[in-house]
Amino acid sequence: MLVLMKQNATQEDIFSVKQKIASLGYKAHEIPGAMRVAIGITGNEGKIDPENFSMMSGVEEAIQVTKPYKLAGRDAKPENSEIPVGDETIGGKELAIIAGPCSVENWDQLLQTARAVKEAGAKFLRGGAFKPRTSPYSFQGMKEEGLVLLREVRAETGLKIVTEVKDVLTLAAVAEVADVIQIGARNMSNFSLLEAVGDMRTPVLLKRGISATIEELLMAAEYILARGNLNVILCERGIRTFEPYTRNTLDLNAVPVIKRLSHLPIIVDPSHGIGMWEGVSSMALAGIAAGADGLIIEVHVHPENALSDGYQSLKPERFRQLMEKIRQLAPVVNRTVGTEVNA
Ligand code: PEP
Ligand code: MN
User: Fold this and answer.
1) What is the Cα–Cα distance from 248 to 225, expressed in whole angstroms?
2) Is residue 78 a part of any domain in this protein?
3) 196/249 Cα distance (integer angstroms)
4) Residues contacting ligand 1 via CB (< 6 Å)
């Protein structure tokens, strides 16, 4: 159930509703919105009688939520969520462009790539220090040493850092460096990890599982929201289908569907979506055209030497050309994009 408060509801009204929810033995989740506050109720097994709340001061109405996710849905918050990341925002009018190598490999690789993507207009640097790899014999990331490089490159460039957490064990170390904590596709259903990032307030980039439905992605987000971290950004990164020619099938349908179902921002990862650099720019533009709030793109100064995902990584010059096209496309979909800077 959701208790929708009136626009002019006072803090006391909100407090009384939360107290009433607690007295009934349930959990209250406050979701602030531009127009009004909604209070989600969880912990109930059967239906709750709306009469419990409808006569209370400041309450507009109490509605039953038919969808399995309560806090991620548009019922809870009709307007789009804008996630603050320092002085940047993901989910507002400006497209969030996240770019960088698949893995952090060494100082020169990271710094050169970071400078190049910044120069092209990206505001966020991606780069995994802890890498979930299909084979245990593949490069597993620089781990803690990689986090140190990310921290130093942030200080050098001012770019915000998006980096993946692989497990609860290393979460504290990753969270010290990450401006946005990435949960990879393989961990979308790692519920203890979702709960652990839910207990933090750092923004979380939650990638869709390899074979996850849209509803399963939204339920994974719900795990994070239910613990009080409302700073969740969703990511469509391709799903596994019967098509072997591409690494994954980028499900761009997910973008307008999620926009209808949820208030959370959704970005697109064309690099993992198609898995070959030749197709990345087209699918990036298609993602923006579909209504995505941003992109996460793999860029590497020397893709031929990359320790992971070189084949799907753009060289800086290609990325710069793509950014020029994004700049032309953005106004068509009523968006803006950061300007080129001299790094
Ligand atoms: C990545 O971003 O490099 C990555 C491992 O992505 P995914 O979890 O989507 O496979
Ligand atoms: Mn990768």
Assistant:
1) 28
2) no
3) 30
4) 102, 128, 132, 184-186, 207, 237, 272
CA of 60 to the centre of ligand 2 (A): 46
Q: How far is the CA of 205 from the centre of ligand 1 (A)?
A: 11
Of all ligands present, the nearest one to the C-alpha of 205 is 1
Rounded distance, CA 271 to CA 284, Å?
8
Domain count, the chain: 2
Structure token pair of residue 89: 């925002």
**pLDDT per residue as tens, the chain (343 positions):** 999 999 999 999 999 999 999 999 999 999 999 999 999 999 998 899 999 999 999 999 999 998 999 999 999 999 999 999 999 999 999 999 999 999 999 999 999 999 999 999 999 999 999 999 999 999 999 999 999 999 999 999 999 999 999 999 999 999 999 999 999 999 999 999 999 999 999 999 999 999 999 999 999 999 999 999 999 999 999 999 999 999 999 999 999 999 999 999 999 999 999 999 999 999 999 999 999 999 999 999 999 999 999 999 999 999 999 999 999 999 999 999 987 665 4
Tally of residues, the chain:
343
Alpha helices by DSSP H, listed for the chain, are 11-23, 51-54, 107-120, 144-157, 171-177, 191-198, 214-226, 254-261, 270-274, 277-289, 316-329
Nearest CA, atom 10, ligand 1: 185
Q: Which of 272, 296, 311 to mutate to test the pocket of ligand 1 (most atoms within 8 A of CB)?
A: 272
342 is a domain residue: no
Q: What is the residue with the minimal CA distance to atom 8 of ligand 1?
A: 184
Candidate of 183, 207, 236 to mutate for ligand 1, largest count of ligand atoms within 8 Å of Cβ: 207
Considering the entire predicted model, what is its pTM? 0.97
What's 199's domain CATH number? 3.20.20.70
Alpha carbon nearest to ligand 1 atom 6, residue: 184
CATH number of the domain that residue 59 is part of:
3.30.70.1140
What ligand is nearest to the CA atom of residue 306? 2
